Amino acid sequence: MEVKKSPKADLENKKTVFMQIGLVVVLSLVLIAFEWTSTDVNIDQSLMEEDIEVEEEIIPITRQEEVKPPPPPPPPAVADILNIVEDDVELDDELEIMDTEMNQDDMVDFSNMVMEEETRDAGEIFMIVEEMPEFPGGQEALQKYLASSVRYPVIAQENGIQGRVYVQFVIDQTGAVTNATILRGVDPSLDREALRVVQAMPKWKPGKQRNRAVRVSYTVPINFVLQ
């Protein structure tokens, strides 16, 4: 089968035209390349460094001056003046030296000292002594006495009042209970009952200080509890 070709599709007729266009384009590029120029820019680094150095602010270094204290005043001048006094004055007063040494035959009266000490101890009230006062039979007997002797007031029972009453008193040289007072109370009815029970106590064994009976202050708590 024979291939038919259109005369318009044949490119051989336009070969010369394309060659001329290519030559024109190549020549134009060569001319532009020759005409292209470049410029070099030189920057002086020294000028930049000088400008930077000028712009930096120089801060002066200051130092506070030390204030020296004023010098001390000069010591007063000492005048070397000697007063010569004649030793012709007679003294009328004579120094008397008392003999304070004691002989073996001398007696010392200690009775007054003992009486003064006993008088002082008789009026003084001690808080703590060498031998504290003791209830007959000891602490156990004291608790039993309080439990059996206290009568709960009816008014306090009806009002539901209960609490602990602290009673302070003094055991004298004979063991008797004196000066009973309420140290910390709860209610007047309970306070009165606590005072009554304490004041009705039997005699205690008195406290002793240096083997002598003395007055000693004592505190007893009485607890009122509703059953």
Q: How would you describe this protein?
A:
Keywords: Cell inner membrane, Cell membrane, Membrane, Protein transport, Transmembrane, Transmembrane helix, Transport. It is a single-pass membrane protein. This is Ferric siderophore transport system, periplasmic binding protein TonB. One of its GO terms (biological process) is transmembrane transport. Its main location: membrane. This protein is an alpha+beta fold. It has a domain of 103 residues: 2-Layer Sandwich (TolA/TonB C-terminal domain). It is 33% helix and 15% strand. Strands 1, 2, 3, 4 and 5 form a 5-stranded mixed β-sheet that branches. β4 and β5 form a beta hairpin. The protein is elongated. The model has no long low-confidence stretch (mean pLDDT 76).
Could you outline the blueprint of secondary structure elements for this entry?
Blueprint: H1 15-35, H2 45-55, H3 111-123, E1 125-126, H4 139-149, H5 154-159, E2 163-171, E3 177-184, H6 188-199, E4 207-209, E5 212-224
Parallel strand pairs: 1-5
Antiparallel strand pairs: 2-3, 2-5, 4-5
